[in-house]
Amino acid sequence: MPPIRAKITGVTRYVPPRLLTNADLEKMVDTTNDWILERTGIRERHLVDKGMASSHMATEAARALLAQKGLRPEEIDLIVVATVTPDMLFPSTACLVQDRLGATRAWGFDLLAACSGFVYALTVGLQFVAAGTHRNALVIGSDTMSSIIDYEDRATCVLFGDGAGAVLIEPCPNQSNDPAEGGIIDFHHDIDGSGGCFLYMPAGGSLNPPSHETVEKKMHYVHQDGRQVFKYAVRRMAEVSEMLLTRNGFTSKDLDLLVPHQANERIITATAERLGLSDSQVLLNIERYGNTTAGTIPIALVDALEQGRLKKGDLVLLLAVGAGYTTGGLLLRWAY
Question: What domains can you pick out in the chain, each with its CATH number?
Fold first, then answer.
């Protein structure tokens, strides 16, 4: 049986209401609003209150998606949650979301690929729908980055926020190649483990389980070499974009919207310049959210819809680079 064409048919987001502004950070760490804006493009980010975790944000995004689509929880076949900040190592965040939703017929699992996690999870969900074994795949990106950030480290604490987003993947009802119907066109993912030492969290796993020593040495926080990450991200985001466009017969002029991972405004700007993209072709919303890791791209898709920058048949490229290093790109026609 040939693969079934699949498409995104709905997207929602959840961000906690509490804001951490640059003015707030000026009181917490040696930094300034101007310094943060110049180096990152971020003005504010959303943070959870105590008692809220990644599964709660994921569930809120999923509930909004079910309401948007008029689906009952038991109609969901698969739940894939991309996260680097699960509530706990087990049970999985997907299990917690499945139970809270009442999605009694769904199975699922978590996927960890840092900032590329949502694009990876989206591709996984696509494969199950394309195989004809699942009809309604729920793909969620959710991260509570505030739980693993050292708010005394100005190099990292200014970058990250909390948030979640969810999409529904369904088969295209008409399996023709009419671009106006929308659908996933192609993807490319790769990893480069040699870059793992430049962006990582040293403790919390089997190598360095929690102890007084790991806590005292702040090994449960994000550690980053920003210069190395910046150079790698700009190069790989441009290379993957060009690869996907070229092998599918497109150029950057054909692209209606690039939705890149929002790690740093300078990374996005440098990537766009390499590709020759105009401002109107690039979604930039880091100013309001910071880097929400796996939540970033679905949150950005909702913003694009609200701004009227996505319409049915548009050629869209989702693009991310994350810790690992991980790289992910997914080319699609917007379906609604």
Answer: 6-171 (3.40.47.10), 179-333 (3.40.47.10)
